[in-house]
Amino acid sequence: MDCCWKEGRCSCRADRAGRPRMVLGGLMVVLGGMAAPVAARADDMAEIRAIHAEMQRLEAKVQQLEARHGMTEGGSHVLAGRTLRSGSRTSASSTSVTNPSGQITAMPDLSRLTIGGPTLSDDAQAAAAAENTMTESIVPTQPKLDLDSSSPLAITQTGVDSLPPIFRIGGVSVRLGGFIDFSNIYRSKNLTSGPATSWGSFPYANSPNAHTGEYRPSAQLTRLSVLLQGSPTKDETLSGYIETDFGGAAGTANSYQTNSYTPRIRQAYMTYSNTKWGFHVLAGQAWSLTTGYTQGLLSRHEQLPPVVDNNQIPGIVFTRVPQIRFIKDFGRKWWLGLSLEAPQVAYAASGSAGDHPMMTGTDDDTLASSGTTLLYNNAGSGMLNPNAKYSMDVAPDIVLKGALDTKPAHYEVYGLARWFKAMGQAPGGPIREHVSFAGGVGGDVTVHVIPRYLQFTGNVLAGEGIGRYGPAMLPDATFKANGSPAPIPEIIGSMGLIGHPTSNLLVYLYGGVESAGRRTYTGSDGFEYGYGVNDLALSSCNVELITGGSCDAQTHTIADLTVGGWWHVLQGGYGAVMTGVQYTYLRKFAYKGGDGASPTTGGNTIYVTFRYLPFQ
């Protein structure tokens, strides 16, 4: 049907296929997103609003162009041979050309035409489908950068869910998200670390790096994402999400001349959601189910702190790994999730016991107390990194989580199960496989203390063999005398306040801690072995040497205090600009040695960041 505006209304004439069409300067544009009224889709109203907004913008453009070429006739506008009264709306951006008869007409500029309308995140689509309606609260007429959340998507991820599609491929919408990031990093001690701080690596006084700081500007946090979505039925949604940054460091990467750091996968997963059944599946690389969530348990709703550092801050629980996840919601209030996630184990092994090393060698290590030879990891091959070590894994890490959404708060509780494996051989004996069980329990909470102005968040995970789930990367396990893995007890936790004094300002305050317990045994020589031993000579940790001295201290606790904020500087048709400042104070405490020494260290980290969000 041909569409024209008359007295503020649009009348149309259908084409042969029954699809509405708009005649713009002799060119017919078929609006594939506005199907004949067979079965109403959840995003129909969103598309209508998007088209109306585009028509209003283009009408202003038409008036500007016609005024420039003297085409206004008594308060009316000439468009492809039609006369439109002032205040009417056109349906495509125009540029002036001369037709064969010599008359100047307006032709559509298809590069400015938005195909389709705003599509929705899984949650918004589900809510809209359930009510078979659409409101401005679900899909705003124009996307606006929102800082009211305790974990704003524009800061913590890429904000792609709030954006309209750039184009459609058949029935699949394609949306782009991300930002250009430039961060200035100042550390009071030299870690030689990029924009992901190695929190467990703050040096003791014996290292010359403990007596000098570092400044490291970086654009590696620049992030891009693509979200693909299609709906086979009004109750089903298929999605594909890819997110990347430049945090990779290939063998040729350096900072001398070209800063040739490489793109890497942050997230890459597919999802299936059925809102009628309340059933959701995720497969691919994503944030672990142990990560807290702002609501529900669906992807891109993670409760991530709005910090700049790519390694978060000590006390936050997370990994970002390949997994397959199954979620069931009950009225979108109660949630139950099961996730099978890629495992890896960080062992406290070679050289961890100082003057009387528990092990010698690198790959095939020998227990000094019993002479048992161990194999517990291997160098990568194939498409794995040959310069990294990979543990010998038995089964995926398993996470079972329940969640509850209420108006004032979101609550979660979960259990984590893990398995560790090592190969051992006593002198003259056979090779034996040793498998140990590990895991823990945890919980998360987000409370809207003052809705839209102040939120409180907290998380905790306690158990054995859970070190990899904390940013400080304390070890998961050590070994027993017979060579079997010995999971190390640990607790990880944090609390935070996120405030929104104004609509364009966000401030935050976090405190976190990661603490490892003892897992030791006494060898036949009378010395302690394992992790958390108390008979090491550690006085050398405080001896300052320019060449670096020996320090075999084992970390007991890492604690931090972080304060920061983001200022939303600009936003418009050109995108959005934000700037942020963050300060972190960190303390690291080691286990006390046999000589009475208790090494401690700490440091300060400051970030000054600028971001341009072109899609917001």
UniProtKB/TrEMBL annotation:
Keywords: Membrane, Transmembrane, Transmembrane helix. This is Uncharacterized protein. The chain crosses the membrane at residues 21-40. Residues 80-96 have a biased composition (Low complexity). Residues 71-105 are annotated as: Disordered. It comes from the Bacteria.
